[in-house]
Specification:
Keywords: Glutamine amidotransferase, Transferase
Pfam family, one: GATase
Oligomer: single chain
Order of helices and strands: EHEEHEHEEEEEHHH
Distance between the termini: 24 Å
Protein name: Type 1 glutamine amidotransferase
Organism: Bifidobacterium jacchi
Mean pLDDT: 93
Structural class: alpha/beta
GO cellular component, one term: cytosol
CATH superfamily: Class I glutamine amidotransferase (GATase) domain
Amino acid sequence: MTQSQVLIVQHVPWEKPGRILDGLDDLGVASTVVNIAKSKKPDLPDFDQMAGLVVMGGPMGALDYDRYPGLKAEAKLVRAAISVGKPVLGVCLGHQIIATALGAKLAKGERPEIGFAPIKRVDKHGFFSMWDKQIDVLHWHNDVVGLPAGAQLLARSEHTKVQAFRVGSALGLQFHLEVTPTLLEEWLDEPSMVKDLKAAGGSKAQLREAFAACNPQIQPLADQVFSGFAARCNAYAQTLGAASAQPAV
């Protein structure tokens, strides 16, 4: 990358950045999307020019390195980004990749969490300053993670102790604030997602109805979280630009 950009790591075509990308676009922060899950030695953009890192969701396990060797490279990338203070955001699988990259344990949850259900705020942070104590959000996961050492727990749910955390320059979200109405329809056109939904006792009609009911509360929270992340990426990009403008000594 000649220009600083936010690197967005996708794992499957339908788990897109959605509102995360909207937040970046609103501030004019450039981004590029890659899928490196199956690459043993992925070709990645210049790390020094990365203004931030987003790791999206996917159906694989965070430690499934045998089938998806690129996940190991993602974990290394997460650790490197956090070590130098680059903004990092992980959603669902991405949340689990951040946690496990920093030494947290990965396990199967008590039961799959699929559909809308409440999470409870444990601690207040700038990203969640407008958030009430409890809010219904979209869940879609089987695995859960522990809290990395030194991390601040931000949210939990009845069946998942770590729903959101902050550690260094990274924010992990087990739930899906990024999903827009259009993206939801893409999920519901994907057979594997529909299979999971039905196995959890849900239906397309129920999920659409719940999304319509919850979205007016979720949209402002998503805007705050993702605009905050975009602002951090923009500020980091400016430091990169300032550094590159310095004359060589």
